[in-house]
Amino acid sequence: MNKITFQYSNENIKPLDDNITAVIESVINQVLLDQGVEVNVDIAVTLSDNNDIREINKNYRDIDSDTDVLSFPMLEYEKPGAIFASAEDFEDDKLLLGDIVISVEKAYAQAHEYGHSVEREFGFLAAHSVLHLLGYDHMTQEDEKVMIEKQELSLEKLNLTR
Length: 162
Fold this sequence. Notes:
By secondary structure, the chain is α/β, with parallel strands linked by helices. The chain has five helices and five strands; from the N terminus they run βαβαβββααα.
């Protein structure tokens, strides 16, 4: 069973209702299933505000701006989705896949901006981030197209459509 832990970056973050964290968890599990991940994984999800995610972005990526989601993969990939892990990549029989940081403020604002549900937006951010943890990126148009297709596949299966 996958281990997905949630934490808040500070005490000022309004705790999300269980539905949002359940959506995030179900999307993560769906993406892992759709991508053929056959081992149990450990992923930490931090729910943040714009100030905290900006600080994280500045400290780890040298980009001084807020963003909607950050991904910190624990593994390196020769090919996206091709997991080659050694024993030290596991803890308690779970593969340490990485960390996700989601700006709650951005997620709510983007849901409103794009005219879809908050659940859809959190689901999209979770799917996008898990694909990054699996080695996918969107540095080229072709890579971006692949990521979008994979995100939409998983989101459609969970009825999180626009």
